[in-house]
Design a protein that fits this description.
The strands form 3 sheets. Strands 7-2-1-8-9 form a 5-stranded parallel sheet. By secondary structure, the chain is α/β, with parallel strands linked by helices. It has 9 helices and 9 strands. It is 35% helix and 15% strand. The two termini are 23 Å apart. The protein has one domain.
Length: 231
């Protein structure tokens, strides 16, 4: 049973879904401290002039709260701004209309908590990509311990025996703790993603996965984990 554990992000990049595809159980780490100006409430899209721009969900309360408690600031017209920005940037792409209606419907729901919005969008995109997996929230699993021990407890609580980590965690994960708990540890490899027809140059891999979906539609999995991926 392969498990990955990552904080919920707003319309994540393709690498986020690559990890989801490669596991059996995906845990949204929603009971850790919220970080401002981070991926939890924002992501990037390409623009026609070759730049990128941020789509940011305004939030209340600052950093001194867990992710699961962060409320969306509904005093700001963020939904309209995001949809307008997406239409302006991607309205002429081959598969824009196919996904835009569903995305608009999800954003239109009366979300109060950022985490609920993030998870709903991630699951919707998993459906589009064909990588639906069993998903859990760490807050419902009531993990104990800190750092590595907390991750190990979460893996064990969902019945896992294999933990797939993001590569940046090499700097602080203690492999011996996983070995002592009989959990195999591996680090995901983000190398080898091919380029595809973006709306402008230079090519940027690190934008929301919507960029890929609007461009290539059903072929998107081939560019993430499929035939076009060079590992």
């Amino acid at each position: 049973m392969r498990v990955a554990i990552i904080q919920p992000n707003y319309i994540p990049w393709k690498g986020y879904f690559d990890i989801i595809h490669d596991v059996d159980v995906f845990v949204f780490l929603d009971d850790v401290q919220y970080t401002v100006r981070d991926w939890r409430n924002r992501n990037k899209i390409k623009t026609r002039d070759g730049q990128t721009t941020w789509l940011t969900v305004p939030t209340l309360g600052g950093r001194n709260q867990p992710i699961l408690s962060v409320e969306i600031d509904e005093a700001q017209p963020w939904r309209r701004k995001h949809l307008d920005a997406l239409r302006h940037a991607y309205g002429r792409t081959p598969h824009f209309e196919r996904y835009f209606a569903g995305l608009s419907a999800t954003l239109a729901e009366p979300w109060k908590l950022l985490v609920d919005l993030d998870i709903a969008l991630t699951k919707q995109i998993c459906g589009w990509l064909g990588c639906e997996r069993r998903c859990e929230r760490s807050s419902t699993l009531a993990p104990s311990g800190a750092k590595d021990d907390r991750l190990i407890d979460l893996v064990q609580k969902v019945g896992g025996s294999f933990y797939l980590s993001g590569p940046a965690a090499r700097d602080y994960i203690r492999p011996e703790r996983f070995a002592e708990s009989n959990i195999e540890l591996a680090y995901h490899d983000y190398a080898g993603y091919p380029e595809y027809p973006q709306i402008s140059a230079p090519f940027d891999h690190f934008v929301s996965v919507l960029d890929l979906l609007f461009a290539v539609g059903d072929a998107a999995p081939d560019y993430i984990w499929g035939a076009k991926r060079a590992r």
